[in-house]
Design goal:
Order of helices and strands of chain A: HHHHHHEEEEEEEHEEE
Largest sheet of chain A: 10 strands, antiparallel
Shape of chain A: elongated
CATH topology of the largest domain in chain A: Immunoglobulin-like
CATH architecture of the largest domain in chain B: Orthogonal Bundle
Strand content of chain B: under 5%
CATH class of the largest domain in chain A: Mainly Beta
Radius of gyration of chain A: 26 Å
Helix content of chain B: 55-70%
Shape of chain B: globular
CATH class of the largest domain in chain B: Mainly Alpha
Largest sheet of chain B: none
Radius of gyration of chain B: 18 Å
Structural class of chain B: mainly alpha
Number of helices of chain A: 7
Distance between the termini of chain A: 79 Å
Largest interface: A-B, 45 and 61 residues
CATH superfamily of the largest domain in chain B: RNA polymerase sigma factor, region 2, helix turn helix motif
Oligomer: heterodimer
């Protein structure tokens, strides 16, 4: 019998022992390293899992206590559905539509003209966030639920004040703020400095769009902003505008 | 989880793929449909219920982070999830200070007929049952004990009173026979 075949059989048996669960901690680590490095071993191990797993049908289901799910959800920073069911449905649709718009934006020449129209003036401001009637605000959150910026829109809808709350991993890119209202493509509101508050002037054409059902989103874009006028980089944070 | 839902592998496929895209609602639905099965596995393998709860949490954190690696073309979602659950249980059992199954194993014990309805059993279960029943009684007993209890060769030798060399030989011969039977 040739040596390669013997080694291959020995390897396969070791994978079987791993799948069965008889190996000690050190042996398990060695097999895991091998499987991580070698796709053929990974495939063979999957075959052994599939061979043995029908035995699991003998194990009765056993509902875990509800707090286990709460612990999983909390440690991932996911929102509790009871309080925010409607919101999470709405925003998950928005994540999808942002993705859609990102695809549409690839190579979209006309959109660069939209950007030209939407160029906004950015200037550092002394922040004054006293709520007044008709103001709208949102906490822009990462998918983990962490708030990275708060944005407040004044009653006239002309001025938007955006205040950083936590650091975003920019990786050489710039955070760009977008307004999404209804089925329209995202509209750029400008670039966000990482370390200070800004007041952004909302372009006249967008003032009517910004209402309590609008969503703000932040994408990571090349320095200077999206070259297409639509989000081209990952959308990292978002928030729903609400009355304050 | 009803039988229909277990059979709805395409549905679990979709939920797992959506979880891979970090869809929180899909993830929660996946948890609702599969956590009973995976918790059953954890409670069977681990002696302490608190270990089972901790490991179940680890399992779903892993599912959330690794769901994108699930390949629907190559694997069944329940097999993939169960393998994660068993692996996490085995990792836990290998830590020092964790209670594990140590009760003596009766090698002359004949398997009892399973409670599940053989008509309901899926074809892969029938095939595996058939192949296991072809094994020598001792080989089958230690393979089943290893699978359900997550016992090491050392523990199996102690629990059966059989030398460790013999135990390794039984299990390896049993696995070779199983493979030949399942893949013929």
């Amino acid at each position: 019998m040739n040596t390669i075949l013997v080694n291959s059989e020995e390897d396969d048996l070791r994978l079987a022992e791993y799948a069965l669960g008889v190996l000690d901690a050190d042996e398990r680590k060695r097999v895991e390293a091998q499987v991580a490095a070698d796709a053929e071993s990974a495939q063979k191990l999957a075959v052994w899992h599939a061979h043995l797993s029908p035995m699991l049908a003998e194990i009765a289901e056993d509902a875990p206590p509800e707090y286990v799910w709460a612990r999983i959800r909390d440690s991932l920073g996911h929102t509790a559905p009871s309080a925010t069911d409607a919101k999470s449905k709405l925003t998950s649709g928005i994540w999808d539509s942002l993705l859609l718009w990102r695809w549409f934006s690839v190579g979209g020449l006309a959109t660069t003209m939209i950007l030209a129209v939407l160029l906004v003036v950015m200037q550092p401001v002394a922040v004054d966030l006293q709520p007044t009637d008709g103001m709208l605000s949102t906490a822009l959150q990462l998918e983990s639920g962490q708030t990275v910026y708060t944005a407040t829109l004044d009653a006239s809808r002309r001025n938007l004040v955006v205040v950083p709350a936590a650091e975003i991993q920019l990786e050489g890119r710039q955070a760009q703020l977008w307004l999404i209202a209804g089925d329209r493509p995202p509209q750029s509101l400008g670039l966000l400095p990482a370390d200070k508050a800004v007041r952004l002037e909302v372009p006249e054409g967008l003032r009517l769009l910004a209402d309590a059902n609008s969503v703000f989103a932040i994408s990571l874009e090349p320095p200077g902003g999206s070259p297409t006028g639509l989000p081209t980089g990952p959308v990292v944070a978002q928030g729903l505008l609400a009355d304050i | 989880m009803s039988t229909d839902e277990i059979q709805d592998l395409a549905g679990l496929d979709r939920l797992l793929l959506a979880t891979g895209r970090q869809d929180q609602q899909a993830f929660e639905r996946l948890y609702r449909l599969t956590s009973g099965k995976l918790f059953g596995i954890c409670k069977r393998m681990l002696v302490q219920p608190s270990d089972a709860e901790d490991v179940l949490q680890e399992v779903y954190l892993t599912v959330w982070s690794k769901a994108a690696q699930f390949d629907a073309q190559r694997g069944n979602p329940i097999t993939w999830l169960s393998a994660i659950a068993r692996n996490k249980c085995l990792d836990r059992l290998r830590l020092s200070g964790i209670d594990r199954h140590t009760d003596p194993v009766d090698l002359d014990h004949l398997p009892e007929p399973e409670a599940r309805d053989p008509v309901e059993a899926a074809s892969d279960q029938k095939l595996l049952d058939n192949c296991l029943s072809n094994l020598r009684n001792q080989h089958r007993t230690v393979i089943r004990t290893a699978f359900f209890d997550g016992s090491t060769y050392d523990d199996l030798a102690t629990r059966t009173g059989v030398p460790i060399g013999t135990m390794k030989s039984w299990i390896r011969r049993g696995l070779i026979s199983l493979k030949a039977c399942l893949e013929k």
